[in-house]
Amino acid sequence: MDSMDRRSFLKTAAGTGVALAAASGPFLENLYAFQTTANLSHVEARYYRKLPDREIECLLCPRRCKLGDKERGYCGVRENDGGTYYTLVYGKACARNIDPIEKKPFFHVLPGTTALSFATAGCNVNCKFCQNWEISQSRPEQVTAVDFPPGEVAAAAEASGCPSIAFTYSEPTVFYEYMFDTAVEARRRKLRSVVVSGGHINPEPLDALAKVVDAVKIDLKAFTSDFYKTYVRGDLAPVLDAIKLLARRKTWLEIVYLVIPTLNDDPREVRKMAQWILKEAGTDVPLHFTRFTPMYLIKNLPPTPISTLQALRRVALEEGLHYVYTGNIPGDEGENTFCPSCRTTLIRRRGFAVETNEIKGGKCPNCQNPVPGIWA
Amino acid sequence: MSAPSVVIVRGRGVCPRKGEIAAPVLARMYDRGIGLLTDQADTAAGLRALFSPSDRVGVKINTIAGRELTSLPDVTLPFARLFSRIGIPEKNVVIWDRTNRELKAAGYPLNAAGGGLRILGTDTAGVGYGPEPFIHRSIGSRFSAVLTDLVTASVSFAVLKDHGLAGVTAGLKNYFGAIHNPNKYHDQNCDPFVAELFDAPPVRTRHRLTVLDALVVQCHRGPSYHARWAETAETLVFGTDPVAVDAVGWRLLERLRKGKGLPTLEEEERPPRYLLTAERMGLGRAAEADIRIVEDEV
Fold it and tell me: What pTM value is reported for the model?
């Protein structure tokens, strides 16, 4: 198993680079090989329909791309070949690592354990603030991928002592078949599977997926359609539908809200969002307000002030959500889990590390209040 | 600003059979097209008006649709070899597109480092895309190092095709193949993305010439190949105004569509709106009245 840190791995994976070309001086004199970085699968996709004239309509995500022969969808990793739709990234991991599960972040799923985490190239939106744009906004030919089929993923998790597998980094929806089969294999081996997603997925594939995974974290990027249109190039409504579906199915769900200064940090908007979560998903859905750092196409804004994150956390708590966290500010009180009944500190965290975990049998040791989550 | 000139050259018999090119006819088409476009008596003088002997020239082709709807090597290689007439060594001319996979599928013999013309995909080892996204208007993309590092002058050598989303794909949209994430720019009929990508300095500062390959035109259901709607038009279109030449290509496409009884792109609610955007951005002329068109036949 690779032991590079995630950032280094991503840089390596994404960096076909131009170093040789730039250093070559004379025109192409130093090029010596015809190698490509392409390592593509040719596995038929599961959610699409065939149209006349070798065209297809992808049914995996709300974009419903209609594609002619040889064309790819918005995600860049699914291709129509002669009227049959294929995923090009099945079993082709371009990033893999062993991460604390708190890094996803999941705060109510096996705290203090590690998750074997991996991704392929591609994403079905284009967030201007993407933290992993080097792989999420790339096509499979533009990253270095290794063969890592579902059985090997599960075996590697077992061998590494990871009780869970995380589909993460880019957007797992675009490697749906790979994710699904890996989750099935994980369950066969009594491992957990967790999904880190933007929630831009159609109900039918999400419903099927929810039957084979244990937890889903949805990045709710804002609570306005305008934000989604401008900064995500997606839609808010299908993400809200995905949250409702997961809540209805009682799949363990956590929500992350990346707070970007001036763009989505209006407390009134956040209050509306908290009210909506309360109504549609209940009081016990953990909500994480995480700190933005300048990245990708938004480099002209400062990191989120810590006071903003703390204020928004208070707003959500005021609205009645029980488990509201701050993220990317190590040492902040908002990293800890408190019993909503007696205020006992249940889990004390610092960054991605769990310092203490007092939850016993899924309950507060002080007042016996049940604490929802996956604890064992 | 004087009206830009776009030259349409019809080569009777240049496509004698599917997949075949009559080389002598094609050579005359190039000579006539470049001569008329530059108002020069011979091709070398015409090319010299557009390129210098010290240029490293990239000929960007579009291979996405496979062998049946890509500019044939028999079409583009003779064009690329014309540059030797003005003292540009063959090794300083590169025919290129996104991937070696697509180039090979379209029948191109790859040649990244051997003698003679270079033929390579951006995914060739040691080439790739720039490490950081270049941000320009609504575009945020890594550009092919072929364009940014290897060439000083660019020719967009594009197949003229109907496009289900953009309306028309031609010389401007061909540069979608110069960035790492073209799939992100097909919303809203590719508008304003086609224009804004061309406006980005890596493209705009290198582009010198558009050649539209309208030898076989996909009139409908493009950009994929469908024999039923592929029309052998035996035509090349030349232009230095990137907007005007595409606008002329659009009208040529509409004429061919009409001949097949197809509705206009306007009626199908997918006219190439990006041309008007490009005109508003000052990249060229889109209105027919503003374009001086010269037509000829060899």
Answer: 0.90
